[in-house]
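Tutorial handout. Part one gives the primary structure; part two gives the three-dimensional structure as tokens.
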Amino acid sequence: MKIFNLGALVVLVLVTLLVILSLEVEAQSCRPSGKIRGIRPPPGQCNQENDSDCCVQGKLYTTYKCSPSVSSNTKATLTLNSFQKGGDGGGPSECDNQYHSDDTPVVALSTGWYKGGGRCHNHIIISANGRSVKAMVVDECDSTMGCDEDHDYQPPCPNNIVDASKAVWKALGVPEDNWGNLDITWTDA
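Part two.
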């Protein structure tokens, strides 16, 4: 009888572990949270510095409230952004309501990674092109909203974006004619 109970206990433990693992995998996934319809920006209202996209009238854009899980080697796409006044980043940075020089290594993170400001003024390490650079988080690359005045009439960010100043691109040694989109990894510093 004790052997049967031991066998049942082992099966129960294995089933429990399987359920826990499946819930953990589910928690790590990040699915779209909705869509927004693009509107045509008023004339001169979408800053296309650094080849930024402007919303297209009627196009549906996917939104996210989450980002992939952060690890010691989080995969992401590095994009180029100006955090200076008048730059394509729009208004002042979310973390401190300030503008930042393009010569300073600063970034905006997709909504899920931004954590509602929880990473503000923290540093991350970005690796690509055989180099690494430390940059400070100063802004959110909004994955939940876009195509409006507050977002410079640009679409919502994908959920895996590290939007970086020119200083980050320079530190990574990326030739200027290749700036714009780059596969990277990052982690909290």
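Part three, for discussion. The radius of gyration is 21 Å. The CA atoms of residues 79 and 180 lie 5 Å apart.
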